[in-house]
Amino acid sequence: MQLVERDGHFTQLDKHVSEFVSGAGRLILLHGPVGTGKTALLQHCVDRAAAAGALVLSAVGSAAEESLPFGVLGQLLRGSPLPAEVVARLCPAACAADQTAPDEAETLRLYHRLCVALLDLAGQRPLVVTVDDLQHTDDASMQFVVHLARRVHTAPVLVVVTDDLDQRPDRWSLRSTLRRQPNVHATGVGPLSPGGVAELIRRNLGEPAARRLATGFTTFSGGNPALLEALVEDHRCGGDVRVQGYGRTLLVCLHRSDPEVLQVARGLAVLGDDAEPSGLSQLTGLDFDAVGHALHTMVTARFLVDNGFRHPAGRTAVLDDLSADEHTSLHLRAARQLHDLGHAVPVVARLLVDADRVEEPWSISVLLAAAEHALVGDDPHTATRCLELAHRESHEPGERLTILARLTQAQWPLNPLAVTRHLATLAAPANAARLSRQDRTATVRQLLWHGRTAEAVPVLEGLRETNAGTAPEAAAELADTELWLAHLHPPLARRSAPAASLNARRPVPVTTRTDPWLRAAATMSELLGRGQFGKAADHAQTVLRDLRLRRGTAWTEEAALMALRTLVSVDQWDVAGDWCTRLRGDCDESTAPTWRAIFAVAAAGLAFRQGDMPAARELAEEAMTVLSPRAWGVAASLPVALATRAATRMGRFDEASRYLALLVPETLFETTYGLDYLHARGDYYLATNHPHAALSDFLACGELIQTWDLALAAPVLWRTSAAEAWLRLGNHDQAGRLIYDQLARPEASNPRVRGTALRLLALISPLARRPAILTEAMELFEACGDRYEMARVLATLSRTLHTTNNRRRARTVFRRAWHVAKMCGATPICNELLAIDGDLGVLDGVSSSSDSVEALTDSERRVASLAVMGYTNREIAMKLFITASTVEQHLTRVYRKLGVRQRKELPANLSVETASTRRRRLSS
What is the rounded distance in angstroms from the CA atom of residue 283 to the CA atom of residue 266? Predict the structure, then answer.
């Protein structure tokens, strides 16, 4: 052990060694808690004395040998230079095989003979006698040490012992006698101060590490040198506190302590935060005073803080030291004890789970209650462990089936794929009929998620039959299920149900027998189906706000995913972005994978809509990494489609083809998730010059949407995509019909929808009309923030202006198109622009400036953004309802603030930043 803050001890010990060599014998008592370095100080004293020519006799006390008479004395004599026959004659009991203790009179004569022999040795050369861990020395040997201490003050004999005064109070009398000797020098050895902790770290790891680690190491070690050195070694081995390092060191220290200390430490490890002296006494079988003394010993040694272990690694090491039978027995006793005392069910359940066995009839109900508590608290790991144990230990068939249903719901956030092995059991007709209504509804959802439609249909039909004429909440729940089916699994929904079902469900309040998250999913499905997008978005926000307060039912993830998708699909991107940032910010490694995957795919959808293709692809990849495509089930279409479309728009066609090659359930195209997949595949075909295949996929989307009556809530813009495919095939008539049809539909009021249609309309319109149509489309995309579509419009407008010989504005639009396309990562658009750069000759002048526009006022920004778009001063004046002179004054100030001299030097990203700034201002 490295010794820090021990300079005073060294000085004092060196002085004692010098004086005893001169004939002034004495006794040195080094006392302090275990692990504080007493043995190292004793060894320092031995080394100095040996260097001065002294003879050293050493022994070490052991808790395991306390009952062995003359055990320590035997160690001392066997290390002496006395002949073996002399030792045997002087101390036959110490050398005998059975070591039987003689009577008291004979013992005193023995002590006298041994002291005389040792003093004779000291007459030849100075003698050092050391006993480490005196508190674990057998009584007979300790009496000899006392006997010797009384006789060394006039001889060159140095007796050095280490002791922990807080241990073995039952043997305090003998040790007290030793302390009262006139030539004793007692030296306390305690834990290190925070400065000492920092110094030891500095010696081993350097000054920067000392500044960084001192506070934490002081907390975890309490200044105990043994624990501190273990922390330093753990840091060398990787940085984290290890059970094999810090934990094992603590365990060694506990084993060097009294047996009662180790017992109480085990009780503390089992009971955790619920440990109290009375409970520890009952659990360990020790009396209250013994428990109190053991706790005091551990606190003094700095093993504990607030009667708890300083680091979880310590608790883990103590538990790992138990045998399997001890581990189970101790945890079951603790569970019974806390249950009888009325402790909370999560506390009792934790002990039962750790025991991995139940014995009491109340145990199953405790495990089930704890699982519900954990699910409400968003802790599916604990819930799963409780339910797995309850299912294994339950012997009643009906109860086991109910537990199994709840187990699948608890496992779902951790890995939806893990529950598939249970679904066949739950869906079996005989079993499904015995499940509760909520469990059957949850089973239907789980089966459909994994594309197991054939198994889900009988369970669903059973629900419809048993709910006929039953309680109002049952009818309302069935109506909710039908609405959800109509939104995601239309072929399975009863088409005649909505009107009557809605009347049945509305008056029914949410009770303990209904699922609020199913109601939320159904409400959003209904609003989207009716085209009430504003109300759907408002309800989605309510769902996401409640998400932080309560989870734990089978429909929570479904409602959350639908809420986030709703906000993105209705183009409330600022709101969706805030929620994605907030929810993803709350995630860490302990967050269930399903939740992290849901938040990632929602963020990917938002990034895609905003035109950030690299971010969309990366987030979609993250969603498929956190949760494998197989675990996503039919919903795998969401990350797969987003990754495919993003890679396609980036020109990474090999990557897009790999995404499309991922296995998805065959029943995917019986769900609305399949529309996303078909649309993404059509985009890929169109980009790789397979317009017929692309048209087939787009038209298939349209047929499904019309068959399923999803016209108002169509998740994909199949008409404009099909129109683009017809244009590639040269059929302007078919393209025109689809474009005008799209512009006549209610959803055309959406800027993104109308802008997409207008871009295509320009391609089939007379050349003279194209700039006006494209300009309107550009303004629509700028208003909604879709940068990718903005780049496509700008590229088309640049070509059109070039064709009509408006080269000045064509160059300006080209610069902006190039900049926006680069921001989106849209390599194909950049390549398309290269085709006209030879005539315009502006590529070398494309600005990639990131000049800040924060210094501009709102008025200056508006004027500057229109100037970047190529408008003249008069046109800007007409658009903003100001005079041309005012426009010129604004531009003069803009040039000065941005350090440019003319209009063409304005940064191309100015209008993009301005649009973004405007959206942030409106959202706030």
Answer: 10
Q: What is the pLDDT of residue 501?
A: 44
Maximum alpha-carbon separation in the chain? 128
User: Is the pLDDT at 886 greater than 70, yes or no?
Assistant: yes
Residue with tokens 């048209």: 695
* 579 vs 378: CA distance, rounded Å: 18
Q: How far is CA 872 from CA 858, 863, 888, 893, in A?
A: 19, 10, 10, 17
425-455 burial, b at 16+ Cβ within 10 Å, e below that, comes to ebbeeebbeebebbbbbbbbbbbbbbbbbeb
How far is residue 56's CA from residue 47's CA, in Å, rounded to a whole number?
Answer: 9
> Which of the 8 DSSP states describes residue 80?
S
Q: What is the DSSP string of 417-459?
A: GGGHHHHHHHHSHHHHTTS-HHHHHHHHHHHHHTT-HHHHHHH
Compute how many other C-beta atoms are within 10 angstroms of the C-beta atom of residue 741: 14
pTM as predicted = 0.77
Burial class (CB in 10 A: 0-12, 13-18, 19+), 663: exposed
Q: β-strands 26-31, 184-188: how paired?
A: parallel
Alpha helices in 450-555 (DSSP H): 453-467, 472-488, 498-505, 516-529, 533-547
**Burial letters 523-551, b for 16+ CB under 10 A, else e:** bbbbbbbeebbeebbebbbebbebbeeeb
Lookup: tokens for 911: 């209008």
For 241-274, letters b (16+ CB in 10 Å) and e give: bbbebbbbbbbebbebbbebbbbbbbbbbbbbeb
Q: Please tell me what DSSP assigns to residue 243.
A: I
Helix axes 573-585, 556-569, angle to 10 degrees: 140
Q: At what angle do helices 312-320 and 248-255 cross, to 10 degrees?
A: 60
Spatial distance between the Cα atoms of 423 and 77, rounded to a whole number of angstroms: 74
Beta strand pairing call for 157-163 and 184-188? unpaired
Task: Name beta bridge partners: 28.
Answer: 160, 185
**Which residue matches tokens 């086991």?**
400
Q: Is the dihedral of CA 445, 446, 448, 453 positive or negative?
A: negative
pLDDT band for position 542 (cuts 50, 70, 90): very high
Q: Read off the pLDDT of residues 504-522 as tens digits, 9 standing for 90 and up.
A: 444 445 555 678 899 999 9
> Identity (one letter) of the amino acid at 811?
R
pLDDT in tens, 468-489: 556 777 888 899 999 999 999 9
pLDDT of residue 61 exceeding 60: yes
Residue 505: predicted pLDDT: 47
- Taking the C-alpha atoms of residue 113 and residue 119, their distance in angstroms, rounded to an integer, is 10
> What Rg, from alpha-carbon coordinates, does the chain have?
41
